[in-house]
Design brief:
Radius of gyration of chain B: 27 Å
Structural class of chain B: mainly alpha
Helix content of chain B: over 70%
Helix content of chain A: 25-40%
Mean pLDDT of chain B: 80
Number of strands of chain B: 0
Largest sheet of chain B: none
Low-confidence stretches of chain B: none
Distance between the termini of chain A: 18 Å
Structural class of chain A: alpha+beta
Radius of gyration of chain A: 22 Å
Number of helices of chain B: 2
Oligomer: heterodimer
Strand content of chain B: under 5%
CATH architecture of chain A: 2-Layer Sandwich
Shape of chain A: globular
CATH topology of chain A: Creatine Kinase, Chain A, domain 2
Distance between the termini of chain B: 82 Å
Shape of chain B: rod-shaped
Mean pLDDT of chain A: 91
Largest sheet of chain A: 6 strands, antiparallel
Number of strands of chain A: 18
Strand order of the largest sheet of chain A: 4-5-6-1-8-13
């Protein structure tokens, strides 16, 4: 039976410093991340023992692992958040990971909370400057000069599903979902076919079908398999083809539809009938087809457009969601995802411009066209490139997306209040609740944390590890009362040791 | 059946009037949207980074992931 989809988004943000003679992206990213403090307590180290990025979903380990950074240095560039997420410096970018969520609505809210966290820290970081230099952060995926940074999604999937089945189903799904997940980009990169404007920021960077790398020779299906949870039950499905989104509907559908398709795979409801003849070429073709109607060749010999393929997935998902009306705790959100998915496909079929207030690539496209028309600009004008980039600027006063939002030209799905609440409060229905609350209450006694454990240092002498292999334990329902009752970390550990039945590590 | 013809003429006139009103409404709506878009384009002109040519050229990121 389909598993509840535990999922999260990790976003690397673009960064630059205006009016800085020597811009160092690593230093700027470190300054930004370190400026953010949601606890006035000591730094909590990240426990790298739990990480093995070279573990391959196909069942082997790829290359010798590099030694993890030592705890002392990782503490400088790492922060575990009271919302259960993680905030750190990855390569030369500030990166925000949402906490584990169980549904598209929560995940959208936590993804949006990340934007505010970045914005808050950039403004705090700026105060250490001379008042001239300005930190600008972009939620995008490319500098349009061939350098890309990622926005990855992670979904826990039943390990019993053969990996090849995931490849067969998810490849055509991911190649075609761009039509609503794309953030739009002026021009082409990475030696791909030239174009004026395309749907996706990322499509140009995908060169192979399946593989482990995320930095070179990028694969449509990434095989990184670190579930950060019980490995016997779960594998991690690591999606690296997605764009970072500003528009709420784009993020909501991105994760909501992908989760449903993965659940259908778990239930054996969908097979290899939509396998594409050439997925690597198709991902770029779909990205360049602003009508969303050009046919793709399938292995079966059929020819179907991206909209048609998505509609097949959507119709199956609609039946799937209805069939689970009684059993799914997230039925209302799943039904909403399926409905919005269908409406978006109808509009894309009729005229994509109907979505000019809802989907990133269409919002951006319509304003680029209006701006070009007003000033008589060609697609290669630098002001067009500037508008493309500034659409993703997260500053509320000068970011183009945010200005359109404020002027009522972009539709919202969630309230500002919910997003602000999510900056410092974890979701209630995953182990992120336990992690976030422990951070909030007992930060000075937490020595290190990872996705699936917390290490306490209560008396300064010995360390105690609380493993959290099950992402659906440690919820408010299971440990809320315990967390309220325990006045200290020592009390909490004692209660957990005494076998508190609802403890995060049980089950 | 002169009265019937008269009736039809009357209805047609009414319809024309209604159509004109609808046209007027649509026109006003379209103008309002156009004004709205114009003022937003003004805003974009104001907030777009001034030195955009240099800015875009210098925006170079290291690959991530």
């Amino acid at each position: 039976m389909a598993l509840i989809k535990v999922m999260g988004i990790e976003t690397e943000y673009g960064i630059t410093v205006k009016r800085s003679a020597e811009f160092d992206p690593v230093a700027a990213s470190t300054l930004v991340v370190n400026s953010y403090k949601d606890r006035a307590k000591r730094q909590v180290a990240w426990d790298y023992e739990q990480e093995n990025p070279l573990m391959d979903a196909r069942g082997f380990q790829s290359e010798p692992s590099a030694p993890p950074p030592d705890e002392e240095s990782s503490a400088v560039i790492n922060d575990i958040l009271t919302n259960g997420g993680r905030y750190y410096v990855d390569h030369a970018h500030p990166e925000y990971c949402t906490p584990e969520c169980t549904n598209a609505r929560d995940l959208l809210i936590y993804d949006k909370a990340g934007e505010l966290i970045l914005e808050l820290s950039a403004r705090i970081a700026e105060q250490t400057f001379d008042g001239q230099r300005e930190i600008i952060i972009y939620k995008n995926n490319s500098d349009r000069k061939g350098h890309s940074y990622g926005c990855h999604e992670n979904y826990l999937v039943d390990r019993r599903v053969p990996f090849q089945t995931l490849v067969d189903v998810m490849t055509p799904f991911l190649v075609t979902r761009q039509i609503f997940t794309g953030s739009g980009k002026v021009g082409a990169e990475n030696g791909t076919e030239p174009c004026a404007y395309q749907i996706s920021q990322r499509a140009d960077f995908f060169e192979t079908e399946v593989g482990l790398s995320t930095m070179v020779d990028r694969p449509i299906i990434n095989t990184r398999d670190e579930p950060h949870a019980d490995e016997k039950q779960y594998r991690r499905f690591h999606v690296i083809v997605g764009d970072a989104n500003m528009a709420e509907l784009s993020t909501y559908l991105k994760v909501g539809t992908t989760a449903l398709v993965l659940q259908m795979v778990e239930d054996g409801l969908i097979g290899d009938e939509f396998k594409l003849r050439n997925p690597v070429a198709a991902i770029k073709q779909v990205s360049r087809d602003l009508t969303c109607k050009r046919p793709l060749e399938l292995v079966s010999g059929r020819r179907m457009s991206a909209v048609q393929i998505q509609r097949e997935f959507q119709q199956r998902a609609a039946r799937f969601v209805e069939s689970r009306k009684e059993e799914s705790p997230y039925y209302a959100i799943e039904a909403d995802v399926v409905q919005k998915w269908g409406e978006v496909l109808d509009k894309l079929e009729e005229d994509p411009m109907l979505l000019r207030q809802e989907l990133d690539w269409v919002i951006k496209y319509s304003w680029l066209l209006a701006y070009q028309k007003r000033h008589g600009l060609s697609w290669d004008d630098h002001r067009v490139a500037m508008l493309d980039l500034q659409y993703h600027d997260i500053r509320p006063n000068v970011g183009i997306y945010h200005r359109l939002l404020k002027a009522g030209h972009v539709k919202r799905l969630v309230s500002e209040e919910a997003v602000i609440h999510a900056i410092t409060n974890p979701p209630l229905d995953t182990r992120a609740y336990f992690r976030g609350l422990c951070l909030k209450r007992f930060a000075s006694e937490i020595h290190a944390a990872s996705w699936n454990s917390l290490i306490f240092d209560v008396d300064g002498k010995s360390l105690q590890k609380v493993p959290m292999p099950n992402p659906l334990r440690g919820t408010q329902e299971l440990v809320g009362e315990l967390m309220q009752r325990c006045r200290s970390a020592a009390e909490l550990l004692q209660a957990l040791e005494g076998g508190a039945p609802a403890g995060p590590s049980n089950g | 059946m002169p009265s019937e013809k008269k009736q039809t003429q009357h209805t047609e006139r009414e319809r024309e009037t209604v159509e004109q009103e609808v046209d007027q409404e649509l026109y006003e709506e379209a103008e309002a949207i156009k004004d709205d878009i114009d003022s937003l384009l003004d805003e974009i002109d104001e907030i777009l980074e001034e030195d955009s040519e240099e800015f875009v050229e210098n925006f170079i990121q290291r690959g991530g992931e």
